């Protein structure tokens, strides 16, 4: 088995505390995967899984804690994550979702499943923003290495907080051997 495959298998079977040495208190255990609304889980199952594929294999992508907590944790691991990703994949844009993809524009770490989004509240529950406010966001994505990819600044700006399409996700997961 390749080093790349071994790394991702280890990462998918452990928490960030094991992979990157964070305290156990700071890390969400994806084994307790519980969506607030059943339609949210259905949305992600349809987005991520092929027919007959177990949704549980994608549990490390999710963390329902406050996005503020996850952002603080991300700041602590971002340099290490970038080094690990570049070590295994080189300095490439794994996202490649923009016609203007350009690694020379700089490189960022992106979350495949965004840390938070209001898309499901707007589209599945038809929630409208109050005057002068945005629709409430929900917390979804994790800081687990399996949910992190290298992205050039142009592709990262293009994606923002949106969910990628199923073909885009499958292409990225194939690159990561996930």
Structure explained in plain terms:
The two termini are 14 Å apart. The chain is globular and about 40 Å long. Helix content is 40%, strand content 8%. The protein has 178 residues and is mainly alpha-helical. The longest helix has 23 residues. It is built from 7 helices and 4 strands; from the N terminus they run ααααββαββαα. It has one domain.
Q: How can the largest sheet be summarized?
A: 2 strands, antiparallel
Provide a count of the helices. 7
Q: Which regions contain 5 or more consecutive residues with pLDDT less than 50?
A: 1-31
Shape: globular
Features:
globular, single chain, 8% strand, mainly alpha, 178 residues
Summarize the structure.
The chain is mainly alpha-helical and 178 residues long.
Provide the fold topology.
Elements: H1 3-13, H2 16-20, H3 38-48, H4 67-89, E1 107-111, E2 116-117, H5 119-123, E3 138-139, E4 148-152, H6 153-159, H7 166-175
Antiparallel strand pairs: 1-4, 2-3
């Amino acid at each position: 088995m390749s080093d790349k495959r071994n790394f991702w298998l280890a990462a998918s079977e452990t928490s960030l505390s094991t992979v990157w040495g964070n305290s156990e208190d700071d890390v969400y255990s994806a084994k307790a995967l519980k969506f607030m609304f059943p339609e949210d889980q259905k949305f992600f199952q349809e987005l991520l899984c092929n027919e007959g594929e177990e949704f549980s294999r994608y549990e490390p992508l999710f963390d329902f804690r406050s996005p503020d907590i996850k952002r603080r944790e991300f700041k602590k691991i971002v340099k290490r994550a970038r080094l690990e990703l570049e070590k295994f994949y080189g300095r490439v844009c794994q996202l490649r979702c923009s016609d203007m993809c350009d690694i020379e524009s700089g490189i960022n770490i992106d979350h495949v499943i965004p840390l938070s989004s209001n898309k499901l509240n707007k589209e599945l529950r038809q929630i409208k923003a109050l005057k002068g406010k945005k629709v409430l966001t929900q917390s979804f994505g994790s800081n687990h290495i399996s949910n992190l990819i290298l992205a050039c600044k142009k592709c990262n700006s293009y994606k923002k907080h949106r969910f990628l399409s199923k073909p885009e996700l499958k292409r990225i997961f194939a690159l990561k051997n996930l």
